[in-house]
Amino acid sequence: MTIVVTGATGHFGRIGVQSLLAKGVPAGQIVATGRNIDRIADLGVTVKQASYDDLDALKAAFAGADRVLFVSGSEIGKRLTQHRNVVEAAKDAGVGRVVYTSAPHADTTDMKLAAEHRATEQMLIESGLPYTFLRNSWYIENYDVHQALQHGLWGAARDGRISGATRADMAEGAVAALVGDGHENKVYEIGGEPFTLAELAAEISRQSGKEVTYTDLSPEKYTEMLVGVGVPEPVAELLADSDRAAAEGALFVPKTDLENLLGRPVTPLSTAIGAALA
Fold this sequence. Notes:
Blueprint: E1 3-5, H1 11-22, E2 30-34, E3 46-49, H2 55-62, E4 67-70, H3 79-93, E5 97-102, H4 115-127, E6 131-136, H5 145-151, E7 153-155, H6 167-179, E8 186-190, H7 197-208, E9 214-216, H8 219-228, H9 233-247, H10 256-262, H11 269-277
Parallel strand pairs: 1-2, 1-4, 2-3, 4-5, 5-6, 6-8, 7-9
Helix pairs in contact: 1-6, 2-3, 3-4, 6-10, 7-11, 8-9
C-alpha cells in the first residue's frame, strides 16, 4: 500500500510521516510531499516536491497512491483553489481514500475559518472519492506558553470550552484513520480534554510558578489588539471570530473520537504544558 502525506514540510504533516513509521509502515510505502523538500529529506521516505498550487506536480505525486493524508493548506483565502487541485489530483490518480484534516463542526458552524473546510468537504463528497473527515479542534500548541509568561493570555473566547489536543495526538489519530479499516466515508470530531483560556492561564501559572492572567476582550477589541502587534488585519479578524465562535461552543467536541482512534487516553493539558515549559 502506498500512502501519500501532503504538506509534510509543515508541523502536522511531518509528525504524520513519523507516526506512520512508528506504526510500522515501511518507509518505501510512504511518499512525503511539500514545497521545500529539503526540510523533509531527513525522514527517510520517498520525497516529492508538490505545491498545492501545482496541479501537475500533485498528479505526479499521487500516481499509484492507495491513500492520501490531505493536510489542509495554511494560506487562508487561497485554500479553495489549492484544495480543488488536491481533490482533482486524487481523483485523477484513483486514490482509494482521502483522509482530510478539517475544522470542528465544519458542516454547521458559523466560524469564518471553517468556510473553506466546509467547501473542501463538499468537494470531496462530490468527487466520489472515499473519504474520512477529521474535524480537528485547536492544537494546544496554538497557544504560545512562553509568550503567555511574558505578556499573559489575551482573547475573546469568554468561558468557552476549547477541546484542545496536542498536534502529536491529532497526527497519530489521523494515521490510525489512514491505515485502519472501517473509516471510509466517516466523519470524526477530533479534540482533547476541554479547557477555558482562564484555565489554561491557571495551568501555566501552576507549573511555571509565575502568575499568568487571561484578559478577555470583545472580538472588536481583540482584533484591534492583534493588528496593533503586527498581525495582518484579515488574519486578526479571523482569529477574533474564532474566539467569538469558541465562546459559543464551536471548539468544543467530545474526546471520544480521538481516543477511539488512538486506543488510549488523550494527552492531558498539564502534560502538554509541562512539555512546552521544558
